[in-house]
Amino acid sequence: MDFVNKIEVGISKLSEKDEIVSRNTITVTQLVPDVLRQVVAWASPDKDDAETYEQYIQRKLNRPLTKNDWKRLINHKDMKKVIEVNTNSADFDVTLLFSLMCAFHEISPRKDSKEEQEAFASFKRIKVLRNKIMHNTSDLKDQGKVEEIKTALIQLVTKSSITYEVSESDANKVHEEIKKRIDQIVTTKVMPHVEDNQVPKEKNENLCHVKTPNLIELNGACCEYFNCILMKKGLLDTKISQSTNFFHGMDIFENVEFGEHNEPESPISQPVDSRQLLSFEHEQVVILIGALGCGKTALLENLTFQFYDAASKVDYLSKFQLLIYYDCSDRAATSVEDVVEHCLRKLCLELGASEIVQEILSLKTLFLVYASNDMNRDSSRVIEDLLRKVPCTECKVLISTISQKVLGLSTLIKKLGLKETGFRMKPIENLNDQKTFLRNYSRTHSEDEKKELLENFNELNKNVRDCFQSPVSLQYLCQELLKDKPRLGKTTQVTDVAPDLYVLYRELLVFLLQRQGICNCKRLSDDLLVVIGEFALQQIHGQMNTISEEQLSRLERLCRQELKNYDAAGSALAHLAADIVLIKKGNTRSFQHESVQEYFAAKYIVRRLCDMRETLESIMMWRPKPMTRMRNVLVWVIKELSSEEHKTSLNYRWEELRQAMQKAGADFDTWTEVLKSCGDNKKLKEAVEKERSVAWLLENEDDAKRMARFLTDDERRMARFLTDDDRKAIRVNLDPATAPPAEWGSIIENFTGKIELDFSREIDSPCDAYLSHFNKATCQVTYFNGCIQDKKNMDILKTVAAPTCKLEIMLKASESVDQLNI
Predict the structure, then answer these.
(1) Confidence tier at 756 by pLDDT (50, 70, 90)
(2) Are 267 and 185 found together in one domain?
(3) Which positions fall inside the NACHT domain (predicted)?
(4) Looking at the domain assignment, is residue 788 inside a domain?
(5) Which end of the chain is more exposed for a tag (fewer CB within 10 A), N or C?
(6) What is the average pLDDT value for the chain, to the nearest integer?
(7) Which of 396, 426, 456 corresponds to the end of one domain?
(8) How do residues 312-354 score in pLDDT, each as one tens digit?
(9) Are residues 193 and 228 in the same domain?
(10) In degrees, to the nearest 5, what angle opens at C-alpha 345 toward C-alphas 340 and 351?
(11) Structurally, how many domains does the chain consist of?
């Protein structure tokens, strides 16, 4: 094997300690990667030169790589994009080479053999040894490390040559090359092929000892890295460019103090805006508390963009010299050195991560720690390591988390002797703040588009707007309102947005599960929402809208049971799942609105109807009876089943659904609501219209208003079907002692079907005021029970009574019965 000799300068005119540091650095940054590349080549002998590593792995698996494959095979977040395009490992460092070797080991048919296990363990040992030298000053200055690396490399080559069936001569050649280069590193002052006069003096000094990076280098490298990682696709796939401050001018942060048990208590001051979060001089740690989707991510990204954007330098960040952003979902980091190495890879290869960390800590550095709520032990180690390094420095740490994690975090901070302060992110409740956020979010649109967006937003009912008070929900709403034909443009009822909120919760839950590295995130999120739907149904049965702590614990137990099916058990994750859907109000929680609770219950029923052969009553755990909320649930069930996806299930279950709707008290308006969702399903339309034609019951003024609305001239077409069947009728059961509803005349004039009149509530009270409107009626009275006083109204009743009309009349008239000519 021909190694490329990369050692360009010798080690001359250095102190003894600097010589040791330089030898160790050259060994791990030049020799070690060369040997590892050779082993990687032995592990993939049948790889074509023009074949990318992704294509090679797919060929070995005999199928395309799935998302699960990526998670199983690739343990480094940068590796996916690297192997998609690279055909060789010439530019790979030790970290990427190790990740590639992990993938080869996973797909190897001999991965469980003793030989391959030992070879892989030797490879891993080299990686660990390299990390120790690059991250720990004591190891970097240890003169015995070169010999230790030499022994480890020879052992790796020996075991790998056996595992991958490499000839003895090739293995010996690599052994000799390792020894030769180690000797050169240890003994040679000026390496072969490079003359003193060919190496610039500055380069000689830079390569021969660890230099101190200057602030411009650090800022430049960090700016490039963070701009890259923060431009990734976010929770909602928007085509709107990132604003540098969504929250400017909005007082949605309340300063909280921590009580005896380190739990955040009531606010200690008036709400403030984001510019004041970092204004505290003596507190080194700021804890930012908020639920998932409340805007913590956007805030930390805003701060990062503002810091590294020269055009948007702001006063409250000007006191910091450097900003480091750490995402707790990064499972490749277990220390601050790892985090810095990811940000400043090139500088760390040259100088060593531990030295750069020391330099960073000597500056006024702002550390932003995103999502410490992640159930990730490695991120907990990183945070603890950072907090241990911060004392006696001028650095400040801003950590975003959820309320459930504050207790442990605050305890650790106090244990380390650090001062802290906390802020809680409030919902954006104020209408002007909501408009400000929407303007900031849509800043790349034209003024006309912004104006249209705000007009559409103003047209929403206040109760609807109140459902969208978090930044993530406002972003979702903004996307909907900016569409060519916004479905939510003139929404006046919360019921209409229940499916939107469900979709939003699902997106949040998928995002949360993905951050935990869980497979089948979408399926698991659907299953968790079904569990919450079952819980919602039980709450509706008990006529409960609020959820106590005890009930919340029961819901979390149900979620934990579902998580176990995916090998993702965890009480914190179960709590987060419930936390996404339920709104906290004091000591209790609730769904955003009754209609959201009903929609969740319907989604649970739909899943069971499609997957199980249980009866509807069994699934609903309900003995049918008139019940408004259960009727609403059934309407959602039919709407969901009317989609093309569930068409077969709807046809199969229609009779059960129809009977349940009838028993729940479905009236004309209920079936009309169902009819709106039928789409092109003609069969369903016919069935719904048939049910809608069953008699209306008119018992009060509200009933009269609804009937009049459907029987006006403008909407008479909708009610025309009422004359097509003998069953179609209005049944009137009103109190004759009260005046007729204002709409009574309009109903009698426009209705053309059959009508049953029952005024027996107060049998002694005449109903003449009602009968007088029938002189222009075209309907037929098929039943009458009431008291008549005026003969004129008796004549009117005769003209509209059907031949088979049943009459139960109490007379209050001066004429005899014979004279009435009935």
Answers:
(1) confident
(2) no
(3) 285-416
(4) yes
(5) C
(6) 78
(7) 426
(8) 667 788 889 889 988 887 777 888 988 888 888 777 776 778 8
(9) no
(10) 85
(11) 3
Residue 498 inside a domain? The answer is: no
Rounded-to-integer distance, Cα 151 and Cα 164, Å: 20
Kindly give the residue spans of alpha helices, DSSP state H, lying in 188-214: 201-208
Structure token pair of residue 147: 């010999």
Q: Give the total residue count for the chain.
A: 822
Q: What is the CATH number of the domain that holds 407?
A: 3.40.50.300
Query: Full-prediction pTM beyond 0.90?
Result: no
- Examine the domain organization and report whether 178 and 254 are in the same domain: no
Whether residue 219 contacts residue 213, with contact meaning beta carbons closer than 8 Å, is answered with no
Residue 84: closest CA among 96, 68, 98, 94: 96
Is residue 374 located within the same domain as residue 270? yes
**In angstroms, rounded to a whole number, what is the distance separating the alpha carbons of residues 730 and 36?**
87
Burial class (CB in 10 A: 0-12, 13-18, 19+), 532: buried
* Cβ-contact 620, 661 below 8 angstroms: no
> What are 500's two structure tokens?
């939107």
Residue 36 lies in a domain: yes
The verdict on 155 and 223 lying in the same domain is no
DSSP secondary structure string for all residues of 279-297? --SS-SEEEEE--TTSSHH
247 plus 176 within the same structural domain: no
- Report the C-alpha gap between 140 and 149 in whole angstroms: 12
Which domain-ending residue is among 379, 409, 426? 426
| Residue range(s) defining the domain that contains residue 705 | 693-822
Phi, psi of 352 (to 5 degrees): 100, 130
Give the SS3 label for residue 590: strand
> So what's the pLDDT on residue 236?
45
Q: Are residues 69 and 135 in the same domain?
A: yes
- Give domain status of residue 753, yes or no: yes
CA dist., res. 813 & res. 816, Å (int): 8
Q: Which residues of 58-82 are buried (b: 16+ CB within 10 A; e: fewer)?
A: bebeeeebeeebeeebbebbebeeb
The whole-angstrom separation of Cα 620 and Cα 52 is 54
The mean per-residue pLDDT over the stretch 532-549 comes to 87
Please check whether residues 364 and 405 belong to one and the same domain: yes
Helix (H) / strand (E) element for 154: namely helix 145-163
Whole-number Å distance between alpha carbons of 175 and 773: 110
